[in-house]
Design goal:
Elements lengths: L13 E3 L6 E2 L13 E3 L4 E4 L13 E3 L4 E4 L13 E3 L4 E5 L12 E3 L4 E4 L13 E3 L4 E5 L12 E3 L4 E3 L4
Parallel strand pairs: 1-3, 2-4, 3-5, 4-6, 5-7, 6-8, 7-9, 8-10, 9-11, 10-12, 11-13, 12-14
Length: 171
């Protein structure tokens, strides 16, 4: 597990604990690390929901939580992370809909949500992600008609919607 005193490192700018065998939840008091700009916890055995305090890391630009066993929803407070540029939540057990609040992250350039259990439709406000260059929402349980606004993202270079249940015509 991640030791609780780690959150006392309030001046830490980058924390990289990828590719270990860390088990258990993300620190509930991780929001105390107010200076963190990059948090990489990928490829461990972390489980449970994203703690609310993580959404207090307002300076964070890169968040890597992929390839764990995290679950639950992505909270609406994700819109507090206004400096976020890279978000990797893929290969976990997240469920719920993709919150429209995610579309308020105007600096987001990479969005990886594939291989989870997200349901419902893509948010209509996806057009707000004007800086988005890479987006992968494949291997979820998304459905409905693709929002026409999705095809107005001028900077989009990589786009994967495979293995979902979308229907209708490509606008």
């Amino acid at each position: 597990t991640i030791p609780l005193p780690l959150a006392n490192l309030t001046k830490l700018i980058s924390l990289d604990l990828r590719f270990n065998e860390i088990k258990g939840p993300i620190l509930p008091n991780i929001g105390s690390m107010k200076s963190v700009q990059a948090l990489a916890l990928s490829s461990n055995a972390l489980e449970g929901p994203i703690p609310d305090s993580l959404y207090q890391l307002v300076h964070m630009s890169n968040l890597y939580l992929d390839m764990n066993a995290l679950n639950g929803p992505i909270w609406i407070s994700i819109n507090n992370l206004t400096n976020l540029q890279k978000l990797f939540l893929n290969s976990n057990n997240f469920s719920s809909t993709i919150p429209p609040a995610l579309c308020e992250l105007k600096d987001l350039i990479w969005l990886y949500l594939q291989d989870n259990f997200f349901t419902g439709q893509l948010p209509l406000d996806v057009i707000n992600l004007a800086a988005l260059g890479k987006m992968d929402v494949s291997m979820n349980q998304l459905s409905g008609v693709l929002p026409v606004t999705l095809f107005r993202l001028q900077r989009l270079e990589y786009f994967n919607l495979s293995k979902n249940s979308f229907k209708g015509h490509i606008p």
